[in-house]
Amino acid sequence: MANKKPNKKQSVDKKSRVVKGKTPKQVYQLKKAKKQKRKFMNGKFSLDILDILILIVVVAIVSCLLTGIILNKQYRKSGILLDESLSADKNIQGFINTYEEIVNNYYEEVDKEGMLDAATKGMLNYLQDNYSIFLTDTAAESLSETLDGTYQGIGIVEIGNVVFDVYKNSPADKAGIKPNDEIIKVNGKEINDENYQNISSYLYKDKSNEIIVKRDGKELTFNLSFATVVIPSASSTIIKSKDATKNIGYIGLNTFSKLSFEEFENELKKLEKESNIVSLIIDLRNNSGGYVLSAANIASLFLKKGQVIYSLQSQSDMRVIKDETNENRNYEVVILVNSGTASAAEILTAALHDSYGAKVIGVKTFGKGKVQNVKATNNKIIKYTAAKWLRPNGECVDEKGITPDIKVDIEYKNGVVYDKQYDKALELLR
User: Fold this and answer.
1) Domain containing 366: what range?
2) Could you tell me the sign of the dihedral formed by the alpha carbons of 288, 262, 147, 304, in that order?
């Protein structure tokens, strides 16, 4: 029997089962292809370990590519929307273009933050409104502290050069300064009738202050440094009648901070419960204001539901703010005011005068009839006028103030303060 000639292209050595003329890798691929072909022809399909690993790698690469493409499109989309929003206002786009032009092409390196601060200040200055201001660093911190009910100082309140009050746990309180002490010298500067209003400007913030006071004819020297002082918003006392049946309550309110309403309410209810007061003096002298909401909430303790507290007139509308509570009172109230009574303090004064019938004693108030919004960011504050407020009778007090029902001023003679405003309030209520 004649021998068959092997195929020239695929000569096989039966012993080694190696296809002649092929590398081992090529042999593996041929066997794999035949195997897959048989499985496919038989209606079956399967993957070995190597196939699965390759598939996983491919899927991972494709997923990463698709994710990158999607995120890139989303980013570009958001950027386009931002550009479209800004381009709607040509002035804004012009500002951005100018900023970029200066930052990129000015011959020296530009302080970007400083330039933007100057631009912000310029916008607020353009309004020509004394109450729309841009505050940074120390000034911003000071305003925040005041609204929060604290400040950096020594802790005294003076009328003229006489200590009127000493805040509890303040440097002045711990050192031993007392109400009625006469301040005669601050850091070597003699205090007299001409410069007593500048006492605070003579104090050092970063080092100890030498303050000399006169008490009972003796001179006492104190050394005080600034510290964080908690300002008690409200303080109270009782003016008792001879038979204890017509006691008069007194509440002094220094500011309208976040805690002012709560403190005032606590003091008021303590006076009513413990002393059975039949009338009340509210002292708002030198109260420069604060949160309008605090003033409105205090007014709501006295007014009947539905009575007007104040109105707000903005660029777009007029809103009337009325008492929405069921709490009210009906005894006599006298309010003490002076030229330092401003803003939220004037709102409370006007609300109780016009809607409650309270009497106002003192001198004409400051006259701040505008309300500001405050926006704080990165130790900076933008404060701008958002509306003007009207008292319940419809008048705006801006630059006019509130004229008292009874005009009377304090007297200051030879280092002694005669509080005739307070005396007049007692006379009226008695």
Assistant:
1) 234-429
2) negative
In DSSP terms, which residues pair with 407 in a beta bridge?
A: 362
- Cα torsion angle, 141, 143, 146, 147, sign: negative
CATH number of the domain at 326, please: 3.90.226.10
User: What residue has token string 């309270």?
Assistant: 358
Digitized pLDDT (tens) for each residue of the chain, 430 residues in all: 444 444 444 444 444 444 555 566 565 566 656 655 554 445 454 556 666 667 677 777 777 777 766 665 554 544 444 455 555 777 888 888 899 999 999 999 999 999 999 999 999 999 999 889 888 877 777 777 677 777 889 999 888 889 988 988 999 999 999 999 999 999 999 998 888 878 888 999 899 999 999 999 999 999 999 998 887 889 999 998 877 778 999 999 988 998 899 999 999 999 999 888 999 999 999 999 999 999 999 999 999 999 999 999 999 899 999 999 999 999 999 999 999 999 999 999 999 999 999 999 999 999 999 999 988 877 888 989 999 999 999 999 999 999 999 999 988 777 788 899 999 999 999 8
DSSP-assigned states of every residue in 158-194: EETTEEEEE-TTSHHHHHT--TTPEEEEETTEEP-TT
212 touches 220 (CB < 8 A): yes
Helix, strand, coil percent content, the chain, rounded in steps of 5: 35, 25, 35
**Shared domain check, 341 and 260:** yes
Alpha-carbon Rg of the chain, whole angstroms?
40
Residue 275 lies inside a defined structural domain of this protein: yes
CB 270 within 8 A of CB 264: no
List Cβ neighbours of 260 (8 Å cut-off, separation of 6 or more).
Answer: 149, 233, 234, 253, 290, 291, 294, 298
**C-alpha distances out from residue 281 to 121, 161, 237, 238, 335, Å:** 41, 24, 10, 10, 6
Instruction: Name the residues annotated as catalytic.
Output: 343, 368, 372
| 355 part of a folded domain | yes
Measure CA of the first residue to CA of the last residue in the chain; give whole Å: 148
